[in-house]
Write a structure and sequence with these properties.
Elements (H helix, E strand, L loop, with lengths): L2 H27 L6 H20 L1
Helix pairs in contact: 1-2
Length: about 55
């Protein structure tokens, strides 16, 4: 793989991660649900967001 191909691939991955981060942040702004199952899902989203930030 050429340097340009690697760079293009990394830029594409960065854009995908930024899109995911934006979607997760938008969900956070909506607030927490009173439903326990929904809170568990939201907690998992927190973990995903932390992992995405660590990958960046």
């Amino acid at each position: 793989m050429s340097k340009q191909a690697v760079q293009a691939s990394l830029l594409e991955k960065k854009e995908q991660l930024e899109t995911r981060i934006s979607a997760i942040k938008a969900d956070f702004k909506k607030g927490r649900s009173q439903d326990f199952a929904e809170q568990a899902t939201e907690s998992e989203n927190d973990q995903v967001l932390d992992e995405i930030h660590q990958e960046s």
